[in-house]
Amino acid sequence: MSPLTAEAVFVAPRTLPEVYTALEALGPAATLLSGGMSLMPMLNRGIGPRDAIVSLGRVDGLAEVTLRGGRLSIGATATHTAIARHPLVARSAGVLATAAGGIGDLQVRNRGTIGGAVAHGNAGADYLTVLSALEATVVIGGSAGERRAALGDFVLGLRSTDLRHGEVVTAVEVDGSAPDAAAFLRYHRVQGAAPTITAAAVIRDDRTVLAIGGATPTPTVVRVSSVEQALAAVDAACAANPLGDAHNPPDYRRAMAAVHTRRVLEEAAA
Description:
alpha+beta, 11 helices, FAD-bd_PCMH-like_sf, FAD, oxidoreductase, oxidoreductase activity
């Protein structure tokens, strides 16, 4: 099946106002394209609207990484490769650079973007897990103006977010001061494949935030008081809202979540 219909419209605006205008004009038929690493496979399988594509690839300034007012802002079209190599990310959020540098293969890292990954809302994705531990904010733009949402409020469920029609994820923000310590772990059965479990821990001012992805429909986030408390909280979340598939059933993911909870906390504290 072709990813697009023969009559499909492709629009590549140069500014965000032009993006918002295009989305309003095209209506529900429009689909946003960032890097395409999630969107194109879905379109090939016949999932989602296929009549109009609005590309963010030419929008000026949307890939910028800046540090202002104590906040590190990463533009939506910044690629995984750019994030992994950017000196500001390395200084302020090195754990995010680590995660970005291990996503997929080189081709995926050179095309995939942080905004596309966040908007896709895949619970086990590297970015959602590490950004949850970093307590990130999602910046969302639209014709009505700009709004901000905590990542935990933005991601509603498996591949479900609070991104409304006509809106665009324009940036992701995290604390611009480097944490005292942090760690990120990824577990997958085949190198380069989608991870089964991701785990991140961030320690800042004697406060530890743990995030586990892939075992529940949204990342499980725990404010840690002890390893035992974190293990109990993760296990309770997995039991209450399990996630699984034919290759990695819920019980297996639950067990791997426990293993990686302990490992990532130990690595961050080392």
